Structures are given as structure tokens and as C-alpha cells.
Amino acid sequence: MVRLAGRVAEAGGASGLIQAFKDQLREQTLASNRSKPIGSGAYGVVYESNIPGNIMKQHHWGADAAGGADLVNEANLQALASELGIAPKIAAIETFPGGVGNRVEMEDIRRNFEPHKGRKIAPDQPGRYPTGMDAVRVNQQLGQLALKGIDLGDRHSGNVVYNKMTGRPMQLDFGIATKVEGEMQVDALTRATTDGFTAAGLGDIAEIFHDTVYDLLAGGQVAEAMDVAKQGFSRLQKIRRVNSPVDQLVDKVKKESDLFDVISPY
């Protein structure tokens, strides 16, 4: 749903004046909430909506020109993800003249979801990233998005929250997300599957799978590469826990044998 902001009251119309007054009150409430943000970043700020149960994400002035994502496109991609149950639902998109102050209203999920700390990839690497079963589940969702033609990046711990009861991830911030098809879609699905296998402690399988897909892509066999990528991803989807190192070794022997039978294109 797109709500065009900055409405003008109908001249001489009582209903228009009432609506203008309501709009003014709403903007005052939002301005007050914006002064107490839930979170903020280089390109925007998140704060409570005037509607209970919703939050607002609003770009800073000039964010689009400075390299920030198109907020409308970002919201549209998030809406697609919300249909899969892996992102907050979009309530409205408000656009202003020149794009200044564009904002998205969405579901507030803080009551049932919480962040996990994650870990640094390297001592000098900024930010923290999901690990263990959290990382497996995140990559299972990234693979689902890839199958829908969406490549979602920037999955550090600040952009993923988890259900307090089940641990199911919810993806936040679609600022670094693009529509993909063909080789790029195969690449997105393969990266998610490879990273998921690696997080599950199946590094050897991840390497075999990765090399098989990219060998096919290098030979121009895009359809075959996608078929192998889908088969590998179907195996990733079946992982429900990350085992101890001993269990991983036992499982790896069996799964590696099974995977060889599945992914071999010859």
C-alpha cells in the first residue's frame, strides 16, 4: 500500500479541514517519536509509529543521493519476504516531494523477537554475524529468498532478530537487496547454501557443492547449475540442529555420500 503524504485540505470543505487537523496531529506525534529513536544508521532512523504495534523507518535527508537504497524498492522487497513469514509486514509507504523524508510503516516485532550477539568473523572485522544454528537458519531463509529472485545481503547481527520461543529468524533492513535472475540467482542460492553447510560444520560438503555449481556456470550450463543448487539447498533445508564435533563427523560421512549421488551432473 502506498500512501502519498503531504495531502492538501479541500478548499472550503469541513471534511478537508478536519483531515488536515488530524494530519497535523499525526505529524506532531511522529516528530516527537522520531526524537526518541529505536535505532538509527547512516541512511535512516527507526522510531515508533502513531499506530500501536507499528514502527516507522525514515530516510535522512539526501540518503538516496548519498548511496542509500531506494526506500520504496526496499519496502517492496521486504513485502515479498514478509509473504514468506521471514520479514515484518509492511503497512504503508509514504512518499514526499523530491523523496525528502520518505518513510515506511511496518509491523513492530520487538515483543516476540530479540537480537542474538553473534561473533566477529575476524578480530579486525567490524560487526558481528550469526553463528551455529542461527547461521544455518538465516541461510535457509536467504535461500528461500533467492528462489523468489531476491538476493539479500548485509546479514550482520544487527539486521537479524530471533523468535524468543522458537529461535526462528526474522530479517530486518532490506537496504542491500536486489532482484536477481539467471546466473545471479544461481549465485545467490549457492552462496546461501554453501554458507549454511559451513555453519553446520559441513565444510567439505560445502566446498564440493560450491565447486560443482560454479564449474557448471563456468561452462555456460546455467539451467543445470540451478538444478544442482536447488538440490543442495533442499538438503540444507533438512538440517534442524548443529551437532557436536563427533556427531558432525559421523553425519558428514553419510551426508557426503548422499550428496555426491545427488549433485553429480555426470
Question: How is the secondary structure organized here?
Answer:
Elements: E1 2-4, H1 14-34, E2 39-40, E3 44-48, E4 54-59, H2 71-83, E5 90-95, E6 103-107, E7 113-114, H3 132-147, E8 150-152, E9 160-163, E10 169-171, E11 177-179, H4 182-199, H5 203-218, H6 222-237, H7 245-263
Parallel strand pairs: 1-5
Antiparallel strand pairs: 2-3, 3-4, 4-6, 5-6, 7-9, 8-11, 9-10
Structure description:
The chain has 266 residues and is of the alpha+beta class. The strands form 3 sheets. Strands 1-5-6-4-3-2 form a 6-stranded mixed beta sheet, sandwiched between helices. Strands 7-9-10 form a 3-stranded antiparallel beta sheet. It has a two-stranded antiparallel sheet with strand order 8-11. It contains 7 helices and 11 strands. Strand 2 and strand 3 form a beta hairpin. The protein folds into 2 domains: 2-107, Phosphorylase Kinase, domain 1; 113-263. The relative contact order is 0.09.
Quick recap:
A hairpin with a 5-residue loop joins strand 3 and strand 4.
Structural class assignment? alpha+beta
Unreliable sequence segments = 4-10, 246-250
| Count of discrete alpha- or pi-helical segments spanning 4 or more residues | 7
| Outline type | elongated
Overall pLDDT score? 86
Helical content band = 40-55%
- Report the sheet with the most strands, covering strand number, pairing sense and barrel closure: 6 strands, mixed
Counting DSSP E segments of at least 2 residues, the number of strands comes to: 11
Our Rg estimate from Cα atoms comes to 22 Å
Count of folded domains? 2
Query: How do the strands of the widest beta sheet line up side by side?
Result: 1-5-6-4-3-2
Succession of helices and strands: EHEEEHEEEHEEEEHHHH
- Report the portion of residues in β strands: 15-25%
- N-to-C CA distance: 48 Å
* Oligomeric grouping of the chains: single chain
